[in-house]
């Protein structure tokens, strides 16, 4: 890896430490509608709301509307705390000429809630891509390839930061370097899908992450 042109970040569990909150929300929904099936809240990580509805609530418009209303209310009250060290880390990337993008399965409505609580977020990223910008959900590589295209960057010039299995697989399928965040799943579990695994961004900067990725290739 000769140069590092773009850093592409998933949102929940990668920029913000929100995954535990979503696990609680979706756990409550699945217990309500699928009381006989355990663990569905873990299987949907990295998927779009449309995919979740098509997979688990197809042809159930009333149920979808009820869940959407509950989710909107939940997200209005969510805490959007950065993963430890994130803000300083992304600023270090930008100082070194790296372009930055959010590549999330979340929709634009959710992002408005984010901007309301974190208005500075728009200054940390050159591009913010949401579910409306893609036809296919992760683990398809479409979202990351689309983001790379925004910067005219090749796959070998991009680094993906992900926490979910579907997201990690998406980065792999895009043939990009993948940094796994052990915020949602254990290190040993995500290591097979990542070049590098970190707990968070504390003590991390452009030089250190570059050295770790370079060493992995």
What would you note in describing this structure?
This protein is of the alpha/beta class and 217 residues long. The longest helix has 16 residues.
The oligomeric state is single chain
Instruction: List the uncertain runs.
Output: none
Shape: globular
Please outline the major beta sheet.
6 strands, parallel
Question: If helices are DSSP runs of H or I spanning 4 or more residues, what is the number of helices?
Answer: 11
Proportion of residues in β-strands:
5-15%
Helix content: 40-55%
How much is the radius of gyration in Å?
17 Å
User: How many beta-strand elements?
Assistant: 6
Secondary-structure content class:
alpha/beta
Reconstruct the topology from this structure.
Blueprint: E1 6-9, H1 19-33, H2 40-43, H3 49-56, H4 61-76, H5 86-95, E2 99-103, H6 108-117, H7 121-124, E3 127-129, H8 142-150, E4 158-162, H9 165-173, E5 177-181, H10 187-190, E6 196-198, H11 206-216
Parallel strand pairs: 1-2, 1-4, 2-3, 4-5, 5-6
Quick take:
It contains 11 helices and 6 strands. It has 217 residues and is an alpha/beta fold.
Keywords summarizing the entry:
46% helix; 6-stranded parallel sheet; globular; alpha/beta; 217 residues; 6 strands
């Amino acid at each position: 890896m000769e140069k590092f042109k773009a850093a592409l970040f998933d949102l929940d569990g990668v920029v913000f430490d929100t995954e535990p909150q979503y696990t609680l929300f979706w756990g409550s929904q699945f217990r309500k509608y699928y009381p006989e099936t355990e663990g569905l809240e873990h299987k949907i990580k990295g998927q779009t709301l449309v995919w979740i509805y098509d997979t688990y609530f197809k042809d159930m418009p009333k149920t979808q509307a009820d869940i959407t209303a509950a989710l909107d209310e939940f997200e209005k009250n969510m805490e959007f705390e950065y993963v430890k060290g994130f803000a300083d880390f992304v600023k270090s990337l930008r100082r070194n000429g790296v372009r930055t993008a959010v590549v999330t399965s979340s929709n634009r409505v959710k992002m408005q809630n984010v901007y309301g609580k974190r208005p500075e977020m728009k200054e940390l990223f050159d591009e913010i891509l949401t579910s409306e910008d893609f036809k296919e959900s992760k683990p398809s590589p479409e979202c990351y390839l689309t983001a790379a295209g925004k910067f005219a960057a090749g796959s070998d010039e991009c680094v993906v930061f992900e926490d979910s299995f579907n997201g990690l697989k998406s980065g792999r399928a895009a043939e990009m370097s993948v940094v796994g965040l052990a915020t949602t799943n254990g290190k040993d579990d995500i290591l097979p899908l990542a070049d590098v695994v970190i707990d968070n961004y504390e003590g991390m900067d452009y030089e250190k992450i570059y050295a770790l990725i370079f060493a992995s290739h």
